[in-house]
Structure formats: C-alpha cells, structure tokens
Design brief:
Layout (H helix, E strand, L loop, with lengths): L1 H27 L6 H25 L6 H25 L23 H4 L10 E5 L16 E5 L4 E4 L4 E4 L9 E2 L2 H10 L3 E4 L28
Parallel strand pairs: 1-6
Antiparallel strand pairs: 1-2, 2-5, 3-4
Organism: Macrostomum lignano
Keywords: Electron transport, Membrane, Mitochondrion, Mitochondrion inner membrane, Respiratory chain, Transit peptide, Transport
Protein name: NADH dehydrogenase [ubiquinone] iron-sulfur protein 4, mitochondrial
Length: 227
C-alpha cells in the first residue's frame, strides 16, 4: 500500500515538473513570456469571464409587475404617436391610423368576397341558388332535421347510364351542402359570393290537437284501430 502511494505521489510530481519544464522550455525557445506572466494572464482572463457572467445576470429579463407593464406600454404608445405625427407632418396621408381599444369600427353593409373566394367567374354570374328548408324523409317521423335552412344550386348537364342508373356531373357545386340557422344568413352568404338566389317559404303544418281516447272510440262514420 505504501509502495502504491509513493508511486502516485511520484507520478503527480513528475506531471507537475513536466508542465513546469514545458513552460520554461517554451520561454527559453522564444515563447515570449515567462512562467509568472502566463499565470497573470490566466488570472486576468478568469476575472474578465467572471465579470461577464455578473453582467449577464444583471441584464437577464425578469417578470415585470402590472404597473411596469402599463408604464412601458404607455411609453411605447407615446413613442408611436410622436413618430406618426412627424411622418404625417412630412408626408400627409402616409400614416396608417391605429384604432384605439374600445372604439367602434364601421364596416360597409355590403361585403363582396368574390375576389378572394377563388370561385371561377363562370360559377358566380351564371348560377342560381335556391334557399329552402328540407322536408322529412319517408322513414323519418320526427321534424328535428327540418329546422335548418339549406342552399341548392341549379342543375347542370349530366351524363346518365340507363342500364345501371348511374349519373355523373362536371358541376363542382352540385354536391355542396351548407346549413344555416335562418334564411337571412343564407341570403347574406349568397350575396357575399355574388350568387343570385330566391327563398322558398317554410311550410309549417298546422298543429291539430288530438285526444288519446279518439283512437279507441267509435262514431257514425268510421271505427279507428278497433276493427
């Protein structure tokens, strides 16, 4: 054990002496700096690095309070207003007016989105839309599916196969199904897209009150459900 400790001590002594000899040899061979100057340079670099880390800690962002956020936003708003005033004074009409929070913006009553919708012109000016309420199917007893309004385009030419009953169409709008809560919303949607339309009035069947006993009664003309 003592022999191992002596070997470790000797090896560390040899390594330190090797480092010192390397520095002294570099100085003797024209390394330009002696041993003490190298140590001073290392200490100076380490101090500079510590100062840099301290400066970074001082400049790291922190969570601002509500008062500081409000003050910074007000200063930013004042800066923008001063800049806009200077630009507007130099060249009137170039400054885009900003809308303050809480103000009301007036939008034109008619919005035309035909230029942005991407629909070809042949499917805008030549199409007619029918706005209607769907009826109940044969197998449907409830009327919940008849509350919404739908739009349907006029039929275009179709290809038919009389043998198997197959039909096809090149109309991209033939299968479009959009539901609306009211006929006014559907009409506004058609107006925005530039489609001509007409509205079919909803047919509401009258509610006829019936009594449960009428199903089992017998009168002069007919007998219901008890034949």
């Amino acid at each position: 054990m003592a022999h191992r400790v002596s070997l470790v001590a000797n090896s560390s002594k040899y390594i330190s002496s090797f480092r010192l000899g390397f520095r002294l040899c570099s100085t003797a061979s024209g390394g330009a700096k002696n041993y003490t100057s190298i140590d001073k340079e290392d200490v100076a670099k380490e101090a500079e690095y510590k100062q840099h880390q301290a400066d970074r800690k001082l400049t790291t962002p922190r969570n601002l309070t509500d008062e500081e956020k409000f003050a910074s936003s007000n200063m930013r708003l004042i800066k923008y207003r001063i800049r806009d005033a200077e630009v507007d004074k130099a060249a009137p009409g170039l400054v885009e007016r900003r809308v303050e929070p809480g103000t009301t913006v007036t939008v034109p009553a008619k919005d035309d989105v035909t230029a942005l919708s991407g629909v070809p012109e042949e499917h805008i000016k030549t199409r007619h839309v029918r706005i209607y309420c769907p009826t109940r199917s044969v197998t449907q007893s409830g009327s919940h599916g008849t509350k919404n309004w739908r739009i349907e385009f006029d039929n275009r030419e179709r290809w038919e196969n009389p043998l198997m009953g197959w039909t096809s169409s090149a109309d991209p709008l033939s299968t479009m199904a959009i539901s609306f809560a009211s006929s006014e919303e559907a009409a506004e949607f058609c107006s925005k897209n530039g489609w001509a339309y007409h509205i079919e009035e909803r047919r509401v069947p009258p509610l006829r009150p019936k009594s449960y006993g009428a199903n089992f009664s017998w009168d002069k003309r007919t007998r219901r459900s008890t034949k």
